[in-house]
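--- STAGE predict ---
source: upstream dedup step, 1 unique chain passed
mode: sequence only
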Amino acid sequence: QGQVVESGGGSVQPGGSLTLSCVASRFSYEPYNIAWFRQAPGKQREGVSCTSTSDGTTYYADSVKGRFTISGDNTKNTVSLQMNNLRPDDTAVYYCAIALSPAPCVVVVRTTGAGLDAWGQGTEVTVSS
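--- STAGE serialize ---
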């Protein structure tokens, strides 16, 4: 059984930056995609960003485009999410998830991620003055 572990959450002021990390390990198959989702209090989980481990393709939700950057070390199945110019509406629990089957990142990010194969425990991000 594989494992997904996130780290790097915290509290920052608006305009600040944080970097989240995700490590996917001990899976029988190489993850096809590694994605970030978030869930704010009282809201539905939403896709944030995704990267394909096969070709490095990335995709971002419109709400974070230009502010967040996803990058990965495919040999270690480690993915980071650099978050800049954070806003109060970025406050949420952020989850890393993997897909073991082919799925375009553009599709993954536009869903709630219900069909993905494994999830981390989440890391909390709070943006507040």
